[in-house]
């Protein structure tokens, strides 16, 4: 069964199956609604329901509060229609957005590599037509035996959409990532949908581009940096990668080679808990501290992209704001899970 959804202020009407979310139906049919986590946690996809009733489904009570539900708001990434509905969404025109419709993909696992003790690189060769995505975007991966998809950012360059690389950190107590780490093998088949998200390079801003990744949050920045350098971007590009010890730092050789080849690219890894036996001579402390040391005069007119665990993102936003870079120049991809409800309540974190 399907219902009709009208999206204001653009006035377009589409069909939405009863098992489909508003966001899924819109992104498949060329209507680009704002979204980020895709899982009812961040609140980015909040829309007003002007007419009709929706089922709020799995919306977190922090991302969509009770008073907001009573005020007729819903989360497009969770809400399903129970009748014909009219919604109003804030559809900003972002000149860097390509609005690529999401599709379903099936793929074969061609390679699995231990990048660190708790992060695996997983390569998926797509059956049929390659995926088109903007570097920084993510896919929703279905893990057999686990209810609901899991979000993973694409770590490879968009130049090759026939095979994508994912970097998957094993989450203690998680349902899907331990399965991916312990049972997935080369030759297995997986399915995913995508591309999702608004975390992509804002080339139109020009100037210095700063990428900050924490842990497996190197995935999106890796794709974005590769794409910028491959396409001949000649303004400064910085990549800051935060890890605990030397064993947790991955793709160091790749980025050191790129820094040697490209005069405009600088790579700054920082270890928060280096082992004395590591012989580490580089930056130490948290990644936002290394960032501050690299830019003593602040970040005015630059563009920063932050990707990874919520505590790292929150600390880095504060550093950037103290250095005169504000909302319009900061873009984030928060690797939110059900464990992050406390973070979602923070005002500075919610705003960006
Ligand atoms: C846009 C986006 C992109 C991402 N990209 C990447 C990436 O490139 N690489 C990567 O490694 N990760 C990425 N992540 C994070 C990744 O999606 C999660 O780590 C993954 O979904 C966890 O799956 P899981 O089944 O193993 O854990 P889950 O079973 O989902 O559990 C995750 C954690 O939350 C806890 N938890 C679950 N539900 C609740 C609850 N209701 N209350 C309190 N605690 C709860 C669990 O105990 C566990 O600690 C991304 C996330 C987002 C939103
Ligand atoms: S995209 Fe819907 S809550 Fe995050």
Structure description:
Helix 6 runs parallel beside helix 7 (310-322). The strands form four sheets. Strands 11-10-13-8-9-12 form a six-stranded antiparallel sheet. A six-stranded parallel sheet has the order 17-16-15-14-18-19, with helices on both faces. It has a five-stranded mixed sheet with strand order 2-1-7-3-5. The protein has helices spanning 22-28, 66-70, 176-182, 219-230, 252-261, 287-294, 310-322, 341-344, 347-351, and strands spanning 2-8, 12-17, 46-51, 54-55, 73-75, 80-81, 85-88, 103-116, 119-126, 138-142, 150-153, 163-169, 189-196, 209-214, 237-243, 265-271, 283-284, 303-308, 330-334. The model has no long low-confidence stretch (mean pLDDT 94). The chain has 352 residues and is α/β, with parallel strands linked by helices. The chain is globular. The protein has three domains: 2-88, Ubiquitin-like (UB roll) (Roll), CATH 3.10.20.30; 103-196, Elongation Factor Tu (Ef-tu), domain 3 (Beta Barrel), CATH 2.40.30.10; 203-334, Nucleotide-binding domain of ferredoxin-NADP reductase (FNR) module (Rossmann fold), CATH 3.40.50.80. Residues 37, 138, 150-153, 167-169, 171, 173-177, 197, 216, 219, 333, 335-339 line the site of flavin-adenine dinucleotide. GO terms for molecular function: 2 iron, 2 sulfur cluster binding; oxidoreductase activity. Keywords: FAD, Flavoprotein, Iron, Transport. This is 2Fe-2S iron-sulfur cluster binding domain-containing protein. It comes from Martelella lutilitoris.
